[in-house]
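Changelog-adjacent note: as of this version, every example in the card shows the full chain rather than a window. The one below runs 206 residues end to end.
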Amino acid sequence: MEAFASGVRTVDARDIRSHDEFLAALEGRDEPVLLRNAPMMPGTVDFTLESLGDQFGNIHFPARSEKSAKGKAWCSLIIADQGNSKVIGAQPAACNFSGRTFAEFLETLKNGSGYYLSTRSPKGACKRVGQTLTYTEPPREVEDYNNIIVKELVPRAPAPLLLPMDTGFQMVFWMGQRGNNFGLHSDLFSEQFLMQHQGTKEVYLL
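Full-length structure tokens:
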């Protein structure tokens, strides 16, 4: 997959195999950087929509009655429709996939729908342990119905060796059709890694 950057520093990351080496490559600069050829953890698997559909197509989205709480300790799961909007807004039109399967959602993408899916883990629920990614549910008294996709994706997601060891972090997954425009944001004073697993994406830095 090709990556192009205009006005963004590009680093050949083929020799970056630890978080310390990544920090050294930044050279103390507080700026976005495009990493090429970053080595991945062993056992990296195919992470395309087709392969995910084969593995998790039978997962059912939560029914309307299965509502989870919101907050840092909970997963989020959103399916929405960009419609005719040029950019997906802060409050996009929600789509009702209650009780339907992940395979049905993927089929709508293949058919060219404007739907997209966004699901994120609780903050600190993901961690690199050795050469694998782990997902741990925060303690809670009631079930989190929104974790059905993210808990399956985290352990299988391709990840670079530059991730820090034994440090909790959050993971977010986006899936959409060509033409979907997501409004990303960056939290100040934090490291955020954006990985493209399939297709292409233009990123505008404001």
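Structural remarks: The beta strands are 9-12, 33-36, 76-81, 93-94, 115-120, 126-129, 132-135, 172-176.
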